[in-house]
Amino acid sequence: MTIVWDQLIVENILLAGIIVGSIYLEQWGHRRAQISEEKESRRRIIMYLADDLQKRLNFIDETYQYNDYKPFFTDMWDAIILAGKHALLRFELFQSLQRTYSWMKYYNSELDGNSGKALDEKVLKDLLEDVRKSINRSLNKLNETEEIKNSLEDHKIGPRAINVSSNNTANIAKGIINQVKEELEA
Q1: What pLDDT shows up at residue 84?
Q2: Tell me, what's the pLDDT at 160?
Q3: In angstroms, how far is CA 53 from the centroid of its own chain?
Q4: What is the DSSP annotation of 138-178?
Q5: I need a labelling partner for 173 at 20 to 30 A (CA). Which of 21, 117, 123, 137 fits?
Q6: Which residues of the chain carry a pLDDT beneath 70?
Q7: What is 88-145 written as a DSSP string?
Q8: Which residues contact 132 (CB under 8 A, 6 or more apart)?
Q9: CA distances from 55 to 51, 58, 61, 87 (A)
């Protein structure tokens, strides 16, 4: 019984190549699925944030209309932070959003600090204006988000022109929400 060493070595090399190749393909497929999942999560977070910021602008308008000063609810932003999903956002976008929600929390702390005392409406209105400006900056950052632009190009949907220079930020937020919804439905 003679062993054909050449044949044995070639078969073992082929077997090792098949094993290494299958491990590589499995890791590649897993990483590809993970990237796809992260993109989907990022799109949903952006859609949520644009909708949430639009609701906060509506809340500010109602506050001015009825002179009824109530606190902002920031619990969903806190949930994004605690879940670690903020890491999916670009740093500049995260920084802008963090500043926006910090302004909201500062407004809330001013409301809490004045509980029992007479409200200084001028201070609260100034704070609400600062919150509005911060929301507008964040909505502009969301509008510039590459994920929205890239997803529109992937599905061959022409980007919609959103007039960022106007003060009508409702159109910006609605445009972002509609673009992401159409993208998710496609």
Answers
A1: 92
A2: 38
A3: 11
A4: HHHHHHT-HHHHHHHHHTTPPPPP--SSSS-HHHHHHHHHH
A5: 123
A6: 1-2, 116, 146-174, 183-184, 186
A7: GS-HHHHHHHHHHHHHHHHHHHHHHHTTTSPP-HHHHHHHHHHHHHHHHHHHHHHHT-
A8: 57, 60
A9: 6, 5, 10, 24
Measured between alpha carbons, how far is 42 from 33 in angstroms, rounded to an integer? 14
How far is 97 from 137, CA to CA, in rounded Å? 9
Per-residue model confidence (pLDDT) at position 93: 93
Give Cβ neighbours of residue 72 (< 8 Å, ≥ 6 apart). 56, 59, 104, 105, 107, 108, 131
pLDDT of residue 117: 74
Structure tokens at 174: 């609605």
Distance CA 17, CA 7 (A): 15
- Tokens at 59, concatenated: 């809340």
Residue 102 and residue 131: Cα distance in Å, rounded?
A: 9
Q: What is the pLDDT of residue 166?
A: 41
**DSSP letters spanning 64-90:** HHHT---PPP-HHHHHHHHHTGGGGS-
